[in-house]
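Lab notebook: predicted structure, single chain.

Context: the supervisor wants predicted structures on file for every construct in the current expression panel, including those that have not yet been purified. This is the next one on the list. No modifications to the sequence; it matches the entry in the shared construct table.
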Amino acid sequence: MRILVVGSGGREHALAWKISKSPLVRTLYCAPGNPGMAQVAQLLPQTADDLDGIVREARRLSVELVVIGPEAPLVRGLADRLLAARVPVFGPTAAAAEIEGSKAFAKEVMLAAHVPTAAHGVFTELEPALAFARAREGRVAVKADGLAAGKGVVVAGSLAEAKAALEAMLVRRLHGEAGETVVVEERLEGPEASVIALTDGERVRILPPAQDHKRVRDGDEGPNTGGMGAYSPTVKVTPAILEEVERRVFLPVLRELTRRGRTFRGALYAGLMLTRQGVKVIEFNARMGDPETQPTLMRLKGDLVPALVASAQGDLSAAEFSVDPRAAVGVVLAAEGYPGKPATGDVIAGAEAPFGEDVQVFHAGTARRPSGELITSGGRVLSVCALGSDLAEARDRAYRALGRIELRGGHYRRDIGVL
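Prediction complete. Output recorded below exactly as produced.
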């Protein structure tokens, strides 16, 4: 097969790494990819937002499957354009991807499907939103309705924090069109977990569950980020909880989307809160998570490609996964200034040294100078992932590898995978 992975982040590098191991793959392309992905694939110049260019290249190269990594091209309809050009695609149509593209729509679907979630309100004006927050003493989550590059959520602990977040979104338009509408919901309490399922629109195959760390500093302090690391498995997600999530979350939502003419094929991500009242859904994503995908795919044994193809074809009935019983931990190395304005152009040393088969360094915000030096090009630079007999061993291996990488001003959390 000739397969094209769209995207350039750590998630896409992990996908490309896993797909490249398949005996079914003859040629693997990435658009635009990154220096790490160049080790396992041919890079194309098209960026993830060049929808016409990607379709044109996929047809020119006779690509037999396109795997779309990031959310933005999905919400903009890249899958629709590829399907119209008769190119098979792993990833939902724009109509189905709205479950991530609009948090208000996701809440509407959850309510219709009787999926447990936080009480909420949808607002376009400041005063009604403030009244909702005031009734809950400011302990709310304020979310920009649209895509905001992982930075559109503020979990407030006081009315002052909630008001500041609402004013930033609704008055100062911090997130532009994405924040013209906000969802304000009650603040849930409990451990978080991420569960990703591959789906053909009717059936699901759940990947090994993971837990990520959103805040920038140790102890879950500081501002939210796109994710500073993740680990798998998480003892908090038992087989019984996974069965409940499949029965009460994934299947009802898929049926409701299909009822609305929005059949979802691809990867559906459920961000969960394990509350005292049971599992509740925080959010849905229309693609695999980042940084959860990296340790998750480290634990997935065997060939991923047949499941991706089966999802695209609409029949996952024969797809099965084998999971490595070992643990995986992934730690994100971030650039100076992240999650604000990250520094770029700094040299990264040691990231391409051999670390052994149980350690993988997935590139995200990296580029290469004409001289060959590896440099930073974004906020989350690398994800250093390791397998171990348990979380402690996996953590030790990941942090030892990370300690061999040099980056001026680089920073990372030191408590990823600490229970």
